[in-house]
Amino acid sequence: MTKVRTPLNEKMLERRLRESIQAQGGLALKFIPVGFTGLPDRIVLAPEGRIYFVELKSTGKKPSNRQLVVHGLLTKLGFRVWVIDDNRGLDEFLARVRMDAVYTVGIPGTRGSAYRD
Fold first, then answer.
1. Strand order in 42-46's β-sheet?
2. How distant, in Å, are the alpha carbons of 28, 45, 80, 97, 116 from that of 109?
3. CB under 8 Å to 30, separation ≥6 — which residues?
């Protein structure tokens, strides 16, 4: 038997993402660049200089072709782009942010420009 996903709208996911990231000491900023379309909805700035790009969609919705092209550009630059459309995907992303925090503490170069040798 297939489990049916509870439909969620993008705003519900955005609120949960924002609150969860703030609870971890980070920021989930609405990302609205001028003159460049297709960038993910949110840029997540986590402690220790970690950056994540997150595209939130209502359950079952997919990124546009333009968004997929830009996600590809970001990936080529070495960034990960998360596309999330349900609570399970959001839970997986939040677990990854927590796990990354464990592995980056004390590693040279992971603290952004504030890090000094």
1. 27-30, 42-46, 50-56, 81-84
2. 22, 16, 18, 17, 8
3. 14, 41, 42
The residue ranges of every structural domain in the chain are 10-104
Whether this model's pTM surpasses 0.85: no
Task: Give the count of beta carbons closer than 10 Å to the beta carbon of residue 41.
Answer: 21
Please report how the helices 87-104 and 10-23 are oriented relative to each other, as an axis angle in degrees rounded to 10.
20
Reading the block at residue 69, the tokens are 């092209």
59-107 pLDDT per residue, tens: 989 999 999 999 999 999 999 999 999 999 999 999 999 988 776 555 4
Distance from C-alpha of 115 to C-alpha of 11, rounded to nearest angstrom: 35
The CATH fold assigned to 10-104 is Trna Endonuclease; Chain: A, domain 1 (3.40.1350)
Write the CB contacts of 28 (distance below 8 Å, at least 6 apart in sequence).
14, 17, 18, 21, 22, 42, 43, 44, 45, 54
Q: How far apart are CA 73 and CA 99, in angstroms?
A: 25
